[in-house]
Amino acid sequence: VLLMALDLHKAIDPVKAFETMLESASGISEKLHASICDSARAPLSKQMIEHLKSRAQEISHLQSMRSISAK
Questions:
Q1: Is the per-residue pLDDT at 10 higher than 70?
Q2: Cα–Cα dist 70/52, whole Å
Q3: 13 phi and psi, to 5 degrees?
Q4: Global pTM?
Q5: What is each CA distance from 41 to 28, 29, 44, 45, 58, in whole angstroms?
Q6: Please, which contacts does 31-36 make with residues 24 or more away whose CB atoms are closer than 8 Å?
Q7: How far apart are CA 18 and CA 43, in angstroms?
């Protein structure tokens, strides 16, 4: 088992961080002939990837709003 974790709330650009992590995980899984799984160890579906990407976009939007209101 190889675990990769990302705290989107701490990323400067949550969407880019998610995309980079997914790209890295995909490369590793290809080389190891392995599967990318979710927290329940079920294979990660395209639908789940889109959901996670949407969540990263939400977090990015919230960070932008906080940055604007802090000025």
A1: yes
A2: 27
A3: -125, 90
A4: 0.86
A5: 17, 14, 8, 12, 25
A6: 32/2, 34/2
A7: 17
What are the contacts of 27-34 at 24+ separation with CB within 8 A?
Answer: 28/2, 32/2, 34/2
Which helix (H) or strand (E) covers residue 27, if one does? helix 14-32
Write out the two tokens for 17.
């961080």
**Which amino acid makes up residue 28?**
I
**Rounded-to-integer distance, Cα 52 and Cα 47, Å:** 9
Q: Are 37 and 44 spatial neighbours (Cβ–Cβ below 8 Å)? A: yes
Strand partners for 43: 37
Q: What are phi and psi of 58, to 5 degrees?
A: -60, -45
| 30-61 confidence digits (pLDDT tens) | 999 999 998 899 999 999 999 999 999 999 99
